Amino acid sequence: MPRNFAYARVSTIEQNTDNQIQEIEAAGFKIEPHRIATEIISGSMPISRRKEFGRLLDKMERGDVLVVTKLDRLGRDAIDVSTTVSKLEKMGIKVHCLALGGVDLTSSAGKMTMGVINSVAQFERDLLIERTQSGLARARSQGKSLGRPRVLLNQQKQEVIEQLQEGKNIVTIAKNFNVSRQTIMRIRDSIL
Question: Which CATH architecture has domain 154-191?
Fold first, then answer.
């Protein structure tokens, strides 16, 4: 017989998960207290890094049901939610989301819903990439320098090259210029 589990999350310490638990119970799910995981953690944290969700996952077995009030309880964005639902489905765990009418996200209707959510997520990623590329092009056209700031000035780079050609040790040169060994090695590799 399938066991019911619940995951409730709030973002700040001023909030509590009581309303989510009550909403799950009002929807007809009877969940034993030791099968309820509650967490106070930012929604921006990927679910894979949420300690209480991980503990809950360790308790669950094939055929069990995980109930959440909203999709955003399961991840920081549509991609994270989709990955989580897919992982749970592979484990044989059904996922019920009350905000979506209690649909099981691992069912045919749930998969269609997740497909729509994934499409929206892909659209958001594409828009972000377009905006980023547009911003970079505008910055370049305005003559702004992009990327990490230079660690060494051109004159200092020339001094590094001279010291390398004299056979000085990379570690010693790096210490003299107060930079990493990798910086010196990149300069060395650029002259070879």
Answer: Orthogonal Bundle (1.10)
Query: CA-CA distance, 103 to 114, in Å (whole number)?
Result: 11
Q: Residue 60 and residue 119: Cα distance in Å, rounded? A: 29
pLDDT at 58: 94
Domain 4-117 has what CATH class? alpha beta
Six-digit token string for 26: 């009002």
- What does the alpha-carbon distance between residue 170 and residue 180 come to, in Å, rounded to a whole number? 9
Residue 165 pLDDT > 90: yes
Q: Catalytic residue numbers? A: 11
φ, ψ (nearest 5 deg) of residue 40 = -110, 100
pTM of the predicted protein model = 0.61
Bridge partners (DSSP) listed for residue 8: 38
Residue 94, pLDDT above cutoff 80: yes
